[in-house]
Each structure stands twice: as C-alpha cells, then as structure tokens.
Predict the 3D structure of the following.
Amino acid sequence: MATRLSRADTRPAAKVRLLHLGLGNFHRAHQAWYTEHAPDAAEWGYAEFAGRNSPLVDDLNAQGGAYTLLVRGADGDHAEVIGVVSAAHQASDHEAWLGYWAAPELAIITITVTEAGYCRGEDGGINLADPAVAADLAALRTDPRAPVETAPGRLLAGILARAAAGGAPVAVFSCDNLPDNGLVAQRVVGDLAAALGPDEAAAVAQHSFVTSMVDRITPRATEEELAAVAALTGRDDRAVVVTEPFSEWVVVGDFPAGRPDWQGVTFVDDAEPFEQRKLWLLNGSHSLMAYAASARGHEAVSDAVGDPIVRGWVEEWWDEAVRHLTLPADHLAAYRAALLERFANPNIRHLLAQIAADGSQKVPVRILPTLRAERAAGRSGQGAARVVAAWIRHLRGAGAPITDAAGDRFVAAAQASGADGVRGVLTLFDPALGADADLVALVDGLVSELAGA
C-alpha cells in the first residue's frame, strides 16, 4: 500500500524568496519546475497563494509542500518529486501575503491569474468600474493592510506593505498567456495605485515588471493518473501535476533582487515575436479545436488533431497566421511540426472544455490580429474567421459548456439569428469588424458550414 508523499521525500524547505499568486497546475509544472532544476534551488523557496481558496492548499501543506510531477511522453511516464514549495496559503490569508512582501529576502513575485485576472477595461488599463476593483480601492483607501480580492489589488497591497517596511525593489513577473504581460501587470497595478494617490504610484514605480512567454501543456490530473503515480512511485499524492515533456520560457526584464539560476530559459530584449508565435499557433489552434472539435464530439486535443477535418482547419489557420509572424520560416515550420507531435501525444488528455473557458478574453489576442491582417491584405481570412464562427456556435450552445467570466454580453449578442448575431458579436470586439459586410457574411456562412460538418 502506498504511503503519503511528504517533505521527507525531497530536500528540506528553503527560505522563502519567491512568492506566487495563482497557485495551480501550470505554475507547478513550469516556474516551480524550472526552479527545482536550478543548480541553486536549495536557496530559493516558494510561498504559494491560491487565487481563490482551494483544497489544493490543504493537500500541499499535508505533504510539506512536496508534490509529484508526472511527465507523460508518447513513449511512457516519468515521475519526479518537486520540493521548491516551502509554504502554501489560501487566498484569504492576507496577513501572510503582506508578511512575505515585507520580508527583506523576497526577490520575485510570479503571477498566473489568467487573462481575466488582470481586471482590464476596454482601454487596457484597470477597470475601476468593476465592483471587485472598486471594493479593493475603497478598502485600500481606508487601510493599506485591509483584505483585498483582485490580483491587482493584492499586488498593490503587497507593494505598499513592502514600502512601509522599507524594502528594496523586487521583480513582479507575469507568466500568463497574454502579450506584453509584464507591461499589462504594471499598467493595472499602476492605475490602481494612481487612483489612490501619488505616493502609492511612486511605490509601484520602484519595482521591476518582467514579461515572459510561457509554454507547457498541463491538463488536470485524473483519478487514474493519481493511481498511476502511486503505482509508479509507491507514494500517495493528492497534489499530482500532469504535464508533457516539452517546456519553454522566454523572459524580458530585470531582477533587482536576484533570481534562481534557471536553466533552459531564453533571455531576450524583445519577447513579442515569441509571444505572437505561441499565442497564434499554439493557443489559437487550441481555441479552434476547443470550439470546433468539441462540437464534433471530441473531448481532448489528442482526439481532435487525429480528426482529418479538424487537422485541416488547424493547418489552414496556421497558414494564415505565419504570414504575419517575424521569426524565420524554418523556425516556424519546425514549431508547427513540434506542435502536431505534442497535440497527438496520447498520454496527455488536455480537455477541450478546459481550453474553451474565457473565450471573450482569448479570441481577441489569439485570433483577431491575424484576421485583421488578412483582411487588410485583401484576403478573406477564412482560417481566422472559422475560429470566430466556431466560438459563436459555442456561444449558442454547441460543443463545450460556456465558462466565461466576461462573456454574458457576447452570449446575448450571439442569440440573434443568422448574420445579425454574427454582426453583434463582431461589433462587440471591434465596430470596424462588425461593419465589414463581407466578413459578416463569411463568418455567418462558416457557422452554417460548421453546423453541418
């Protein structure tokens, strides 16, 4: 019988110098994994905070922060114990959050809160009209140590606690799937601070905001995979993370208080070419499959890419997207080939329903830049338009269930019949798209085509 995984199965917990907001599977398969493999990992402990209160915190703490990373390749499984988590906390443990920020040894705060977690308005800045943002602002005006809820609010509260303690600058390091994520984090936190006053804005300006492009497919672990880990390792682990062999991390920015000696990380002056490549080719095709392939009855990416019709749609989308990428053609061809291999891995069950969430946040950054560029070049943009059409069908109830924190107005617009619904959805994205009669007709036709596919 397997025994419970514990801290004794890895090295002693390190002093906390890294703080993470958004505890989940991807972070533990990516940033924590890179830190685990740093030569100086014993000097860098992570304190983890859930975005919302989560049973994962209790599971991790019961195991002393240790967990198993199950790497599932096409040729079999490999399990390793990750020991960089020194403490895990619920989102509600605000005093602990502020305490880590005030500690002199803190160096880096990594963030994985999803696109929706940045609470942006249409202009890209903080949405002060968001009730949760407004509540945080009111709380911080009353007391800078008051509990807050949103990611920008929690980051600002931490920065203010560090300023009050006389702490040195640190790196706030976004690892979410959106372009210029470090600048996005800087903007929303800076906007919230500016709404409080010039002293708060000055406190934010002292810190470094780091941008990164991250990539590693990390589906939710199933009960069968938990059992597989127990059989493979002899340890019962309720905090298993399942991932693929591939990983990538491209980083732009400064670390004023130092960083782990991460291996295999690409440090560049401009991450945009890599961000666009990943967002459009990997994430864009994920969105296409999430909406179009789930409507054909597929449940996972590996099933979807094995469908010749879906595979053709993916290739059509990629053919359009690569025209507007700046990386070398041979690099892009190799990346496409690697994606197909990754997608086809039968041991990674990346569920389309999981990918389908928050389409109103994802479609604008993954699909619309290529659609606009294709239309501006005088081409139809059919590959991109097909993704939009598949998403509209999703909004109308086809395929994966709708889970979208900001999607109500898109769902409402899509309910209008035929071209009127298409026009309404496109107009919400961009009035110029909604005014493009040929595009509306193209998308409407593709909606009908997908319904019969």
Remarks:
- The chain has a mean pLDDT of 96.
- The chain has 21 helices and 13 strands.
- The longest strand covers residues 208-215.
